[in-house]
Write a structure and sequence with these properties.
- The chain has 400 residues and is α+β, with helices and mostly antiparallel strands.
- It folds into three domains: 8-146, Globin-like, CATH 1.10.490; 173-290, Alpha-Beta Plaits; 300-394, Arc Repressor Mutant, subunit A (Orthogonal Bundle).
- It is built from 17 helices and six strands.
- Strands 1, 2, 3, 4, 5 and 6 form a six-stranded mixed beta sheet that branches.
- Helix 2 (21-35) packs across helix 6.
- The radius of gyration is 35 Å and the shape is rod-shaped.
- The termini are far apart.
- Residues 327-385 form the PucR C-terminal helix-turn-helix domain.
- InterPro entries: CdaR-like_regulators (IPR051448), CdaR_GGDEF (IPR041522), PucR_C-HTH_dom (IPR025736), PucR_C-HTH_sf (IPR042070), RsbRD_N_dom (IPR025751).
- Residues 170-277 form the CdaR GGDEF-like domain.
Length: 400
């Protein structure tokens, strides 16, 4: 508090100005409405409410200046809270208070008989302005913080429901889209980033950075992941998003394929997590999920896919580490090279005969043929599952 009890000179001036209060209220109200557009348009408060607020504050100020007790700042606190709840700008509120008390000061100046009286009146009024401003600002900011916390809590809950999908968003998808400012039928990707520690963001300021590039997004921080749904201005924008986020990658980050429709976000999150898990623990980088139909099929049924990989590749998976890795790398390279032993040899820096020998060893171990379409389909699917789910293929949970 800055206000000190006024001396008798100030009290006398206040008593002489008090009969002018109706005129003072009128002139203050008219000046605020004329000079401040938000009040002139009654954007946040009606003219009747504004007039009542001006009246209450000026009467309180005059009682204080007369020496009838400490300033009653409850009206200023109530005004700060009420305007914050409506989103009125704080600078405009402070200006309105200054207009009112400056009008009081003008009348004191007209009545002051000497320099000492003018100095005393000025000191008292500006101390009172400081007190009103401090209480108004504190109340406004406290209320704004409450509102922001409530909004963030609701936003976080809606993002969580969006990622949960199913019954969690049944009947509320439109509301989720409205609050998160996302389109129901827009184009999106989901990002899943491994957090570096509890409560720490893997992609700091991701939402703000994306907003700078005109991409809306919504994020949720969990103990192990920072996940976000990012709106694309077009299907080709996915590469821009990946490039932008990759600049600050500090761990493993998975990105879903591009998808349409906000209601498909839960499945996209699953695919983003699969992409993340395809990287080795402890590594750093960003991987976008392969959009092939087979990859989507494998990812959509992880338990069955893991079981398939274990059943098909068990003989090789049970081999000693180096031997197992060489055969698996060879088989994967053979698929990626469309079955060409020459191209496979070039990729693995081996003679084609070495590749043929390894492929023969693979077919002998697995009891499968690399010319039978059915065997090739199963081997390709098993390799895809192995790539997506990694070491989990070594000891799959039994299917029920």
């Amino acid at each position: 508090m800055h206000f000190v009890h006024p001396d008798p000179v100030v009290a006398d001036l206040a008593a002489r100005v008090e009969p002018q209060l109706p005129e003072l209220v009128k002139s203050t109200f008219e000046q605020i409405v004329e000079e401040m557009a938000v009040y002139g348009r009654a954007e946040f408060v009606s003219h009747e409410e504004l007039r009542a607020s001006v009246t209450a504050n000026l009467h309180s100020a005059m009682r204080t200046l007369k020496g009838e007790g400490s300033p009653d700042l409850s009206q200023a606190a109530a005004t700060g809270r009420a305007r914050a709840l409506k989103g009125a700008p704080l600078p405009e509120l402070l200006r309105a208070y200054r207009i009112g008390l400056t009008e009081v000061w003008y009348r004191f100046v007209d009545l002051a008989v000497d320099r000492d009286a003018l100095v005393a009146a000025t000191t008292a009024i500006w101390a009172l302005i400081d007190d009103y401003a401090e209480v108004l600002t504190t109340s406004y900011r406290d209320t704004t913080a409450e509102v922001l916390l409530a909004q963030q809590t609701r936003r976080s809950a809606l993002v969580e429901a969006l990622f949960a999908g199913g019954a969690a968003i049944e009947g509320t998808l439109w509301d989720i889209a409205r609050v998160l400012e996302l389109s129901l039928d827009g184009t999106y990707v989901v990002v899943a980033a491994e957090t570096p520690g509890l409560g720490r963001e893997a992609l700091p300021q991701a939402e703000a950075r994306l907003r700078e590039h005109h991409h809306a997004s919504a994020w949720r921080l969990t103990p192990d992941l920072q996940v976000g749904v990012v709106s694309l201005r077009g299907p080709q924008a996915a590469s821009t998003i990946v490039g932008l986020l990759r600049e600050n990658v500090i761990g493993r980050v998975g990105v879903s394929p591009v998808y349409s429709g906000l209601g498909n976000t839960a499945r996209a999150l699953h695919l983003a997590r699969v992409a993340l898990s395809s990287m080795s623990p402890g590594s750093t980088g960003m991987v976008q999920f392969n959009e092939s139909p087979l990859a989507g099929l494998v990812a959509s049924a992880p338990e069955a896919s893991v079981q398939l990989a274990h059943d098909v590749l068990r003989p090789i998976l049970q081999l000693p580490g180096e031997e197992r890795n060489v055969l698996l790398l060879t088989l994967r390279a053979w698929f990626e090279c469309q079955g060409s032993t020459r191209l496979t040899g070039e990729r693995m820096f081996c003679h084609p005969n070495t590749i043929r020998h390894r492929l023969k060893r693979i077919t002998d171990e697995l009891g499968r043929s690399l010319t039978d379409p059915a065997d090739i389909a199963e081997l390709g699917t098993a390799l895809r599952a192995l790539s997506l789910f990694g070491d989990s293929t070594r000891s799959p949970a039994p299917l029920r």
